[in-house]
Amino acid sequence: MISGCAIYNSEYYIPVENQAGDAQPLSKNDVIRVAITHNYLDIPPPQQPGWMNWGYFIAAKRETEKRLQNLNYDVIDVGDNSKNDGHPTVIALVDSSPIEGSATTETHTWDAPVFTDDMGRTTLSEKQGVTITHKAYYYKVKLVRPEGKDNPLFTCLSSRDNMGGCIAPANPSGYKTIYSSYATISTDNVNYITNVDHLVTAVFYNYPNMMGKKWVYFTNTGYTPLYATDPNAPKPTDKK
């Protein structure tokens, strides 16, 4: 696992595993609906441990929709108020959450000058430090073609929190897979929107040319990908 430390160099290394399925590839004639996987309904009630994980699911839906639209695909039921509008031909099943038990804590220390002489040379310094906790987060997506016009995947389930996001049925079947991917990021950043944005960008980096390949995606504080490389290649060092 390769990780990046956001507080010092603001770089992220995101391992991505892409798999091509056996279904007909996406075309510009396809109509896509993004649906949150059914385990979204297992999130604990408010104020219980893990209850804020709902944000990762919702962000996964929103960011996937934006990414597919940026790739010039027709995406319907965009946003939080999905109402089974339109007639999708492809369903994008998405899921994202923190990885429980992945937190690691590191303390970094340095000598900070307190007094300097007339020449600017340090005459007194003190030890300072910061403790950083990294945690890993994942994002999964599967683009599928449901078979049969009455396939349950074409119907959105309601969520208990009235967010209105389309939720897929439990244990969906009767489909062929176009593409699936799994990516992780380890960071001290706790903003779920930013984390999911990095993950979704990495997963769809250079789509569809990266299907069936494993990548380590590299980015800095911006959202534009710098490059992706084979995971067995040396760690990227060019920070220009």
* Percent of sequence in beta strands: 35-45%
> What shape does the CA trace take?
elongated
Helical segment tally? 2
Order of helices and strands: EEHEEEEEHEE
Cα end-to-end separation: 24 Å
- Give the biggest beta sheet: 9 strands, mixed
Description:
The structure is a single chain. By secondary structure, the chain is mainly beta. It has helices at residues 54-70, 192-203; strands at 12-20, 31-36, 74-76, 90-98, 104-116, 122-146, 175-187, 214-219, 227-229. A hairpin with a 7-residue loop joins β8 (214-219) and β9 (227-229). The longest helix is centred in the first third of the chain and has 17 residues, at 54-70.
Topology:
Layout: E1 12-20, E2 31-36, H1 54-70, E3 74-76, E4 90-98, E5 104-116, E6 122-146, E7 175-187, H2 192-203, E8 214-219, E9 227-229
Parallel strand pairs: 2-3, 2-4
Antiparallel strand pairs: 1-7, 1-8, 4-6, 5-6, 6-7, 8-9
Keywords:
disordered C terminus, 2 helices, mainly beta, 240 residues, 12% helix, nine-stranded mixed β-sheet
Quick overview:
The protein has about 240 residues and is mostly beta strands.
